[in-house]
């Protein structure tokens, strides 16, 4: 089917599509011979992050609203039961089959060479898509050795793992109903996020026990997924995840929006007030350490003329995907250096350093005595 026919099926006329291409609201991309359009700005029903492929439209994965007060947030949102799942700290992907190729798209609608290379490690992707054409598997890659997110779940000690959490279908917005989704996950052995079961707003004591357990174990939080399609999926995060967000990002504070930190401090305060009923002294120390120590370390590096960087190692099955990943990072304007490349068993281990020049240059100017207006 031609691309114009595909977009026409979702109500986009030829003229509107052509204008979108000219404005780069629909950017043509190619990956190893597969061509598609990446939606960069809303076009009719297609939001940023959607994909138009030769086999159909892959709708964007929707942003999930956050609640800051668990009990009142759930009572405000739900009249019917909902399921609880762990919110895994990683990066969001959509896995699809296009022209017989298994491809993994990022939230921004880029094909990620690293994720595409590694997805075969986690479930029988060819079998899933052979039996379910047009299916889209949505999930999270998570672990310490990934190119996008420095944070990871405490139980993934090395490399990465994949955790599915939703299913979609080509040409259809929205998710497959949750109970059908679980049957497909289990039937094909697709690894998923941790599932805690079905609850209602009357189960608040158990819900607070679950979030307390997640907080104690260093996990990010939980997702509430309703049975009623008219009700919305919600997310709620732990105190420790807020502090960890701050700690792993504070070294880049000179270039970060202040809202990144203030939002997490507010979330932490809301969590402590509802779940702990008081601020414990150790929380003061943890917050101060999370905010100040990474910035101090960045200042110390800048005094020694050391560029601030973030280091990670990626493991690839196919050597060709290493260069594709390098090209992908360049296209995404990531400043980085390849540090090493070694074959270890079945995998190529490639060391990267993401260079954080903006923070380094700002701190250098402060250290040299340049005035600053704020």
Describe how the helices and strands are arranged.
Layout (H helix, E strand, L loop, with lengths): L2 H6 L5 H9 L3 E6 L2 E6 L11 E3 L2 E3 L11 H8 L4 E6 L3 E8 L2 E6 L6 H6 L6 H7 L3 E8 L18 E9 L8 H10 L7 E5 L4 H13 L4 E6 L7 E4 L1 H11 L8 H19 L4 H23 L5 E8 L3 H12 L4 E9 L2 E9 L1 H11 L7
Antiparallel strand pairs: 1-2, 2-3, 3-4, 5-10, 5-11, 6-7, 6-8, 8-9, 11-12, 13-15, 14-15
Helix pairs in contact: 8-9, 8-10, 10-12
Write a structural description.
- With 374 residues, this protein is an alpha+beta fold.
- The chain has 4 domains: 3-58, Nuclear Transport Factor 2, Chain: A (Roll), CATH 3.10.450.740; 75-230, D-amino Acid Aminotransferase, Chain A, domain 1, CATH 3.30.470.30; 241-303, Methane Monooxygenase Hydroxylase, Chain G, domain 1; 309-367, Alpha-Beta Plaits.
- It has helices spanning 3-8, 14-22, 70-77, 113-118, 125-131, 178-187, 204-216, 239-249, 258-276, 281-303, 320-331, 357-367, and strands at 26-31, 34-39, 51-53, 56-58, 82-87, 91-98, 101-106, 135-142, 161-169, 195-199, 221-226, 234-237, 309-316, 336-344, 347-355.
- The strands form 4 sheets. A 4-stranded antiparallel β-sheet has the order 1-2-3-4.
- The longest helix is centred in the C-terminal third of the chain and has 23 residues, at 281-303.
- The protein starts with a helix and ends in a 7-residue tail after the last helix.
